Structures are given as structure tokens and as C-alpha cells.
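[Automated response] Your request has been received and processed.

Submitted sequence:
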Amino acid sequence: MLDVLEVEPQVAEPDAPEAEPPPGVPLVDPRSGLVVEPGLLTCLVAADPDDAVAIADRLGRFGGDDGVLL
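Generated structure:
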């Protein structure tokens, strides 16, 4: 678990970040169709573990901008 917390994102924070979204906005990965509703425990399972890893990397911003929406 500690190794995960030490991973540095490859995406730089902007100089002027956008305003925070209002409460209750879901986290959406349009590429996979995943919608994570706030306040719920969500588990990600895939037939191919590499698919789940790719989604987690996009949601965690550990790669380029792949269109994840908040």
C-alpha cells in the first residue's frame, strides 16, 4: 500500500486550476463507460486485469489526459 502512495502522477498541475465541481458530481471515464457516484464504495473488476489497471491509471491521472470527467 505504501508503494502506491509514493507514485508520482505524470500529469502536471495547471498554474490556474479550474474551480472545484459542486458536491455530488460523479467521476466519469467516458472511454470505459465507468461512472463512480460520490459517497458509494465502488469496486472495479474486469475480465482482463490490464483493463482495470488502465482505468485506474486514467482515474488517478497517472498518464496523459484521457478525458476523465469530474
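Summary generated for your ticket: The helical segments are 2-5, 49-59. The CA atoms of residues 9 and 24 lie 25 Å apart.
If you did not submit this request, please reply to this message.
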